[in-house]
Amino acid sequence: MLHIQAIFTVEGRRMEEHGKAYAWNGVWVSWLMPAFILVSLACLAGRILSYPINRDEHMFVTVAQQWPNADLYRDLGFNHLPNLAILFSSVFALTGTDHYLMATRLLILAAWAAALILIWLIGRRMGVSNLAIVAAMALLVGNITLLGPPGMLATNSFIPIPFSFLAFLFVLGALDEDYPRKRRIAEAFLSGVAVSLAIGFKANFIIIAPCFFIASVLARQSQPLIERLRFQCLPLCFGGLVGGFPSLLAFARDFEGMVAHTLRYFTELHSAFWVDSTEPKAVSFADKILLAEEIWLGGTTLLVIVGICVMAVRPFTLAGLRGGMAHLLRWQVILMAALVLLGIVISFVPTPSFSQYFVPPIPFLLLAFLSLAPASGVGRSQPADLGDGDVRTTALLLSLIALALIAGSVRLLPGLAALANPARWTGIATYSVMHDALDREGLAVDARIATLSPLLAIEGGRDIYPEFAAGQFVFRVAPYMTAEERQHYRTTSPEELTQFLDANQPDAILVDIAEPLEARLSDYAVSHGYREVEGGGERGALEFKLYISTPP
User: Fold this and answer.
1) Which of 63, 144, 423, 429 has the greatest CB tally within 10 Å of its CB?
2) Mean pLDDT along residues 57-78
């Protein structure tokens, strides 16, 4: 412990000896954090709320709106663990809103706010300097990958991140020997809950579970093994069971169906479709490496890695080999290193690869950065300052903040302009455009619309076919299903579309012009005498064709 303390005091003494020439007033940094969070959230709000609709949202939002009136998997074709659908559906039910896209985008904004606040809380609990905490926030907010579809859309790509942060915050408390036993037990339980919630949003965050379990057993060697098992490991596991209840219940109710819709969907049907698809994709390992390089070795992710490397070397220069090794071999650092490595491995598992699959290592890189960052030199409950940080480390942290903000500014600053113009918000614009288009044609409120872009239909207040609730995600893989596999799905296929619609005549057909797969719906509408609405074309950010059934 003496070596660790030396790391964070040597340079502070040197500064004091030089007349405190480099001393910082910690007050302005303390005010910097809430100000940074507020400004960042304003920029993020404008960007999130004005980001164009993506095909993934047609599934995530629509399925949540249709549930629980139909089975999440067999009827609606959902292909992920159930937490996000449950969360979205609960918000719809509790608020009574019919602005489904707007409500879910606001939830993503709330997830960003939670992530920033949790970085603050984690930094405070670890005794990290305020400037290092602001740097971690800036590196998250400026992350170009997360400022794209993975972090802007109402999907399950970003929302597990704050839950993984929450799990780490609680595990810090669970393994803190200074806390009373009851508090440590409670925090171990809550950490387990948060871990399972993160996994229930996105399955590839399952890498957290074994790492936290091992940490709860091995991290505190000074305690007897039986105490570690009773007061850390068991509460963690019990919390995991509680947090994982929705997923466990779904598997218990229909194990074969869940396996078909989650595991086999992505390992068999999804892969088979993309092998035949002509759309751009990363299938080979070489292609995945190039995509990983673009995401991990560019922008603020590379800045995080640089910061980690410098922070890892810094203790050796201040406290020598022994002190440096003691700093690096702390359980927090080892835990984050393991999660980063497992996150890298699991990112290469799905085929084909897309940018959202390479997100898992990013939050753990940020936590590794915080684990290695300079301490404030004050108690856990006291305001932090920079008094124990050397001028080179301070310069590095300021540089990281500046570079992160520069990297993200091209995407973040337009968000402020968008925030000031609610008419440009995608949720409001989509709701308005779809209601105007459907109401103008006198389409009844209970009219049923055939579309592979079902979010547009429900934003317009109309009904859809359960077979198309997942958008194109089940429809496009139907030709690759075996007869046995088909039993788990309520769907049709491109080849069966005409027969299906003949038997279930829609009141209207809605086609997203940007989606080639939906051209079959246009062909059906034209061949069956549907009237194309004048001016259906481009309406703001939406491009669609609307066909209305004509009376016989």
Assistant:
1) 63
2) 96
